[in-house]
Amino acid sequence: MAWSVGTLTFVLVRTLPGDMAYKIAASRYGDDAVSTASAAAVRAELGLDSPAWQQYFHWLSNLITLDLGDSLVSGAPVVQELQHQLGYTLLLAVCAMLVSVIIAFPLGILSGARPSSAVDNSIMVGSTFVRAQPVFSLGLLLIFLFAMELNWLPVAGFGEPRHLILPALTLGLSLAAISNRIIRSSTINVLHSAYYQFARIKGMSRFSTFCRHGIRNILLPVIAFMGIQLIGLIEGVIMVESVFAWPGIGHGLSHAVFARDIPMLQGAALVFGLMFVALNTLIDVCCARLDPRGVRQ
Amino acid sequence: MFRNLCLIIFIALAGLTGCSAPDSSDTLSISGPFEPISLDPARSGYIFSRMQVIETLVDIDNKGQLKPGLATRWEHSKDNRVWTFYLRPNVVFHDQSAMNADAVVNSLNIAFSKPAPYPQDLVEAVTALNESTVQITLSRPYRPFASLLTNYTTAILSPASYNESQEITKLSGTGPYQVEEFQPPHRVGVTKFQNYWGEPAHVSKVVYTTGHRAETRALMVASGQTDIVYNLDAASVDLLKVSKKAKVDSTLIPRTILIKVNASYPALADVKVRQALSLAIDRQGIATKILRVEDIEANQLFGPSMGVWHDATLPPAEQDVKRANALLDEAGWLQDDSGIRHKNGSPLKLNMITYANRAELIVIATALQNQWAQIGVDLRVHMENASAIPSGHADGTLQLALMARNFANIPDPLGIMLADFTSTEGGDWGPMGWQNPSVFSALSALPLVQDKKAYASQVQNIMHQINADLPVIPVVFYMQQSAVAPRVENFSFDPYERSFRLSDITLKPAS
Amino acid sequence: MIIKRMPTLQPAQQLGLALVLMLLIFALGEGAFYAADPNTQQLAKAFSPPSTAMPLGADQFGRDMFARLGAALRLSFLLSALCVATSAITGVAAGICAAWAGGVVEKVLNFVVNTILALPGLVLVLLFAAIVPGSFIMLYLAISLTLWVEYFRLVRATAKPLINGPQLQSSMLLSFGRWYCFRRHIWPAIAPDVCTLAAFGAATSIITMASVGFVYVGLQPPTAELGLMIVELFSYYSDAPWLLAQPLIALFLMVLGFHLLAGKKTL
User: Fold this and answer.
1) Which segment of the chain is annotated as a signal peptide (chain B) (predicted)?
2) Nearest C-alpha of chain A: how many angstroms from B197?
3) Which domains are delineated in chain B?
4) Best residue in A24, A42, A74 for a mutation probing chain B (most B CBs within 10 Å)
5) Facing residue for C61 by CB, picked from B215, B356, B366
6) Which of A213-222, A281-290, B28-37, B178-187 has the weakest average pLDDT?
């Protein structure tokens, strides 16, 4: 996995048109100071003259020793930069997930409890509304509403908990728009299942039945579905970080694309890949814990 | 189990964001597009000089005249080759070590070995004559040398800032602010330095946050989140002018938005074509409708702030489509039924590069495309990275490029003119493939002119030729727009963009 | 014949179809009958409100918004149609191949798919878009590359049991050709899902194009493209909110139409 991702990025970036040294120089020295002289200095320093296959093998041998090299732009070790960004990205992702759970669960269960009621329909319209727009325009709308008109929250930046609210809300909303529908269908299934009906007939109260038999069974398909959502989450992270200037990996990645910062690109792509695999495994474990019968294929 | 999971996550989050919000009453928060990527002055020095962390030997006043910095005075030999700088006494670095000749020699030697906006082989030797005197010997006479030492790359750092391989591990300068936190490329936090040699700062803490998108930056100040925002885009200026949260400050700076022309490209080699392109530009429309500023139409290379290099007698630039068409007809480019002009069967198709870091450039490029279409020129705009301009210059593929040329890198225009306008080679951000032997020789002789009056008339004569021959086509002078929150007092904008002048600023107590 | 097997549409899907058709008619109609140039600037007419000459008013350069919106919608439709066609054909073909051939072929295809899946789609698109900035072709290739994987996984999972199932095996024993078997046994089973995926894919490709436009690596000005228009008009939200609303609403309706058309929420 690591090798293929790394190689893919290497080949892609290598085929980018234009001289790499210039792009790196522009990122290093600023727009006003990029010149043929500074590009030449960059080329000499980074050995960009050596043939591509040499550079590739050099990178490969480093990868085996878990050394991702230095960022071409800042000169700092990639691992260090990624660690720094990863913290922010994970923070944002976890918060967004939490937000989506907090929003999606009550809504999904509400609409599942009374399918096709007015509540259900209005929730459906709302979800469709949120889903039918790119994450960035959702972010813009929230900025206009909460930061500009109401002036409750900061527009962009980081450093204080307040800064986290809007990006997490944006991402959380876009995730919740999908997951609440899953929860809804899952709820309908559970509420109409034989075991649930039996529990009610047994004379258990609505609430205790729901706690004992409902939640766990509703969770199963939802958690399985989270795995699918992860891609959406990661893509959302890139856009949201760009809108809110949140210093995470997504932001670093789009910067690395501009600056042709290969080590950084490879590193970021690797981290995304590893994150994806790790989270999928985690979800499998969760599903197994919740349902030892091994429902998930 | 689910509840436990939630609890764990909440505790983790509380731990991560547990740092309490800073007391913002004595913290100034500012934002701009610049990305501090490294502590090295050669790379991100422009940020640290703006944040007043590092200082140079020579400083500049608002009019572009040199004034003492870390050096109180300097002198040079008759042939402009040997320069002697007398250092300011009793200056300490942020690490409390003394700023003396040895520290300066060490700092400059490292600076001159790194890429900078001046010829690499210019400096021959830097030596300490005594505790407070530094002598610099050049490889050739160079009249504007003192103005080179205003550049941020030559800022003086303490010897302890460097490790063995001359990389900067801890930035220790002499300015009124010292670096407290550094999170590349997003944030720099500085605090007041108590032992500053000059007037100490008023505000005790300043945080610079990179606002990568111009729109977002404007919203940050409009919502009261940020005190000062630099480099506003034109559209945001309108938004902020009606906002109570900020005042807009407009300062004309030594930057010109101009079109770099590859004069060795057959179609552009003819001065008539260049003049036609210039005449077809609706500068008034671009200035008022796109940039939303009056009276910045550029009729010449250097703006009004550039002293003798600016010719105040030139008539303002007017759009004249009729004359532009006539000139193109004369040059043999004739319009056919498609509306595009042709000559010897080949159409007048041109490519123009521009870059996204300055939002207004792409908008102006779009306007140019349209205005030139009216005189039968088919222009294609390519959005690139800024580095595409020097790279296109080097490999000769560039035809036209729209850029915001900074003339403040070295405040004396002579340095720029000598570097860019004295050979067919031109300069990365200047002319390209342009031939004008009389300008070349007049410029090369200029540094030897001692008499002020003669110098001024020579300069006027040279600029007259350049403004007529259009090796680059000036579009508009640059108006730098910043937004300032009402609680900020004593804000001023440095037209040479060397300093944010944070140490002058005081904050009104919250009412 | 394939059309005949299409499931009947739910009311919501009909609404979606109506929306998509309406936008398509607007886009094509504008091109055929209105036909103003979307890039002609008249700086004097900047921000002029809707009038008979310009039904949707003019943007910050006095360009006709009606013409720009039409052009932008045409572009989005073109891109989504190309991406969906390419990715569906590739994905279905590869899925069937993997299910039918098994062995090495399946392993190789799986490896390729997992590699692509390991990178978020947007990252790939960003990379490709950066290779040739402003190239429609690159954008199209990149989006198709990220979309076909879904078809592949779906088709492989559905087709595998079918191929080993009794009906298809007996057809094969009766020496019917593979094409017939595909048409008779596999296509009916996957058709609804493929159509759903196609509708979602169209929506995804439209959103992706707008998103890369938003981070400046998509198509370039002065192209009329929804994402770019949003970025350009974003700054004027206080001056002329009705201008910013136009591309936002157009994008929203387009994606909404395709989502509704997709009907049931596939995972």
Assistant:
1) 1-21
2) 29
3) 23-53+175-246+485-510 (3.40.190.10), 61-165 (3.40.190.10), 254-479 (3.10.105.10)
4) A74
5) B366
6) A213-222
